[in-house]
Write a structure and sequence with these properties.
By secondary structure, this protein is mainly alpha-helical. The protein has a single domain, classed as Orthogonal Bundle (hpI Integrase, Chain A). 52% of the residues lie in helices and 6% in strands.
Length: 187
């Protein structure tokens, strides 16, 4: 979960919270786009392919077309929190989100909007990108004790070994274990 020079590749929970707080301050299109990326861990290109019919309000999920499956039609359902579903529904009702594609932008436009929110939130570094959000989703899911096979499905990974990299990030549990050692060392 680190670059070749030791830089972190993922957003922490606090950074993700700051990102979501600042996303809420922007226009409905940017806010909903940022929320979908943060709460699904999908790739930016996958988010840009979402249509109104991709949101399954009755099941509380978004159905994502996995674009990395080389020509195969593979879809995955990822649950969304009720408040994010409500924001999406309202955006569709008011016409702020497109009926064909929810966000009819290019990949570059989506990337720039996410990076602008990151900058407004004071998040700087190689992880201040849509990919950093994706990695942050994976790390948060693993640290929240979501079963690895479920994280694999939600992220659309073909191989569980790819998903297992998220277990390498230091989380609160690891710090608690270290703290127990420090307490014993100081006694």
């Amino acid at each position: 979960m680190f670059t070749r020079t030791g830089g972190r590749k993922y957003l922490t929970r606090n950074e993700r919270d700051a990102f979501l707080k600042h996303a809420r301050l922007g226009d409905v299109e940017t806010m909903t786009f940022c929320y979908v990326l943060a709460y699904t861990g999908c790739r930016i290109s996958e988010a840009l392919q979402l249509r109104a019919g991709s949101i399954d309000f009755s099941e509380g999920q978004v159905v994502i077309h996995s674009l990395k499956k080389r020509g195969r039609q593979v879809f995955r359902g990822v649950p969304l929190p009720p408040d994010v579903l409500a924001i999406l529904k309202e955006g569709m009702r008011t016409g702020a989100l497109g009926r064909d594609r929810l966000w009819p932008w290019s990949r570059i436009t989506g990337y720039r909007r996410v990076c602008a929110v990151m900058s407004a939130a004071g998040i700087r570094g190689t992880y201040a990108t849509p990919r950093g959000l994706r990695h942050g989703f994976g790390v948060c899911a693993v640290q929240s004790h979501v079963p690895l096979n479920m994280v694999q499905r939600w992220l659309g990974h073909a191989d569980i070994k790819t998903t297992a990299i998220y277990t390498n990030a230091m989380g609160p549990e690891e710090r608690e274990i270290a703290a127990r050692m420090w307490r014993h060392a100081l006694s």
